[in-house]
């Protein structure tokens, strides 16, 4: 008896298999749908092209501003409060379409604005945040160095020396997203006087500050990462973040943004899964869709399991954040777990495509490559694991 296979809508079964979007209030769902439309209309059509050319989506700055989702109440007048769950789902949706775009947005709104919000004085927040909400000033976050990645808490080599009413910064930073074009770069440096890490806002055009675009990346090519050199860069005391007195203050920023990376990892996983599923129901071998074979269905099921488990953790993380009860270790676990499951998921998605999985014209290739950057930044899996281990045992295993 002949078997007839009905042509299916390639996005009939989305990666949100347990429908976590249904947890949103109706107005929040409308906001999310509006953002999904923006991503589909403005971001997705050029994502692959920008990735291939290694260009950031600066042409979308005005459109991003008009979305009205940058910042939180207090950053500027008229901003509507968003729940941590909605904010997380926005990050997820961005990465579902383009992890590079999600990172470009997150560096500005999360790391850049978050540093000023968490560690700046009232005057500094009023001076910079309204302009950043409007995307008239784009931000970046300079922590990682050429010789210091995981050891930033204790080993920063960039120095800051007080000289009257100014600070003199010397050193290098590396992997600084948005760093080649940012108007405001938050530089974290060790104070020569007391050995503590402090934050400084370096404005574009400051003498002695140079930023060179890192070339040859194989992941997040739509993000311009910079190698920054600080050669006797003079920053006025009024640009020193007044509430950043040690690395503990830097960690307050990272706690929130690590949670955001967990959501981005879920989005990257969903994007890869949805691309693989669409391919599976259309690609035919031996006279029928490959999605009818047991091995392919097993891969899709595993992907959905990883995605759903990660979403469940992220939803609980959002609830704890809303209650003001989210710990550094919980955020670290979410980043560790979700990026690890993402790495598995995008590999399975690429496998569904066979040889086509390494071609940029098939979306899985981009998600597969971009996952490696999400897996590494905002603390490697190993470093986040040790944060969790310290919380579990009460004993620090950091060297």
What percentage of amino acids are in beta strands?
5-15%
Q: How many H/I helices? A: 11
Mean pLDDT: 93
Summed up, the domain count is 3
- Which CATH top level class of the largest domain fits? Mainly Alpha
Helical content (DSSP H or I, runs of 4+): 40-55%
Taking all Cα atoms into account, the compactness measure Rg is: 22 Å
How far apart are the first and last residues' alpha carbons, in Å? 67 Å
CATH fold call of the largest domain: Butyryl-CoA Dehydrogenase, subunit A, domain 3
Largest sheet: 7 strands, mixed
Query: Any low-confidence stretches, pLDDT <50, length ≥5?
Result: 1-12
CATH superfamily of the largest domain: Butyryl-CoA Dehydrogenase, subunit A, domain 3
Q: What is the number of strand segments?
A: 9
* Helix/strand structural class: alpha+beta
**Architecture of the largest domain, CATH level 2?**
Up-down Bundle
* Topology as a string of helices (H) and strands (E): HHHHHEHEEEEEEHEEHHHH
**Given the C-alpha coordinates, what overall shape results?**
globular
């Amino acid at each position: 008896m002949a078997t007839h296979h009905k042509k299916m809508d390639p996005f009939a079964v989305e990666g949100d298999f347990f429908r976590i979007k249904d947890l949103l209030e109706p107005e929040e769902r409308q906001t999310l749908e509006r953002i999904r439309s923006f991503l589909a209309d403005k971001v997705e059509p050029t994502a692959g092209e920008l990735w291939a050319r290694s260009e950031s989506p600066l042409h979308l700055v005005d459109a991003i501003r008009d979305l009205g989702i940058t910042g939180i109440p207090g950053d500027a007048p008229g901003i509507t409060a968003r729940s941590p769950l909605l904010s997380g789902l926005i990050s997820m949706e961005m990465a579902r379409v383009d992890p590079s775009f999600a990172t470009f947005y997150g560096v500005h709104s999360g790391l850049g604005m978050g540093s000023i919000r968490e560690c700046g004085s009232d005057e500094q927040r009023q001076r910079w945040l309204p302009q950043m909400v409007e995307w008239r000033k784009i931000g970046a976050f300079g922590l990682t160095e050429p010789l210091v990645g995981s050891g930033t808490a204790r080993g920063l080599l960039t120095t800051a020396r007080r000289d009257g009413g100014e600070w003199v910064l010397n050193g290098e930073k590396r992997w600084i997203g948005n760093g080649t074009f940012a108007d405001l770069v938050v530089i974290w440096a060790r104070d020569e006087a007391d050995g503590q890490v402090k934050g400084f806002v370096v404005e574009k055009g400051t003498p002695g500050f140079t930023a060179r675009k890192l070339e040859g990346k194989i992941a997040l090519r739509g993000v311009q990462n910079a190698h920054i050199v600080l050669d006797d860069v003079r920053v006025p005391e009024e640009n020193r973040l007044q509430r950043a007195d040690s690395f503990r203050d830097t960690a307050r920023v990272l706690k929130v943004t690590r949670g955001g990376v967990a959501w981005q990892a879920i989005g990257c996983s969903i994007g890869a899964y949805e691309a693989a599923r669409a391919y599976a129901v259309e690609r035919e071998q031996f006279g029928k869709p490959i999605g009818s074979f047991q091995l392919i269905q097993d891969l899709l099921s595993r992907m959905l399991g990883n995605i759903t488990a990660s979403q469940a953790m992220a939803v609980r993380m959002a609830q704890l954040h809303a209650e003001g009860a989210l710990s550094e270790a919980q955020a670290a676990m979410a980043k560790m777990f979700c990026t690890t499951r993402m790495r598995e998921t995008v590999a399975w998605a690429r496998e569904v495509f066979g040889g086509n999985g390494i071609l940029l014209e098939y979306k899985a290739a981009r998600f597969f490559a971009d996952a490696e950057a999400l897996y590494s930044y905002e603390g490697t899996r190993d470093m986040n694991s040790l944060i969790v281990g310290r919380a579990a045992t009460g004993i620090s295993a950091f060297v």
